[in-house]
Design brief:
Blueprint lengths: L2 E5 L2 E3 L5 E8 L8 E6 L6 E6 L5 E3 L7 E6 L4 E6 L8 E7 L8 E5 L2
Parallel strand pairs: 2-10
Antiparallel strand pairs: 1-3, 3-8, 4-5, 4-9, 5-6, 7-8, 9-10
């Protein structure tokens, strides 16, 4: 059974940092591209960042320079380091594998 499990969300003040983790099981992790997406209330789900199986990365314009995606194939885990967080980063964050599997999401709230 394929599972993607996110963790690391929470409440943080503007300008703060969080690191999200996405742990995968049931897939050949090293052969998969993984991406992070987010969905804010009343808005469509959007791509935040992605990483290919070779480690090439891409970012949405709104997070480039603040967020960093990385992967540890030995741990079957992808990370999203989020710095200089803004209130508009508030959303549920999901990871997604190129095999078409979504995680359950983790809430990130940026507020003073």
């Amino acid at each position: 059974q394929v599972q993607m499990v996110e963790s690391g969300g929470g409440l943080v003040q503007p300008g703060g940092s969080l690191r999200l983790s996405c742990a995968a099981s049931g897939i050949d992790f090293s052969r998969n591209g993984i991406s992070w997406h987010r969905q804010a209330p009343g808005k469509q789900r959007e791509l935040v960042a992605g990483i290919t199986r070779s480690g090439r990365t891409n970012y949405a314009d709104s997070v480039r320079g603040r967020f960093t995606i990385s992967r540890d194939n030995a741990k079957n885990t992808v990370y999203l380091q989020m710095n200089s967080l803004k209130p508009e980063d508030t959303a549920v964050y999901y990871c997604y594998t190129s095999e078409g599997i979504w995680g359950q999401g983790t809430q990130v709230t940026v507020s003073s």
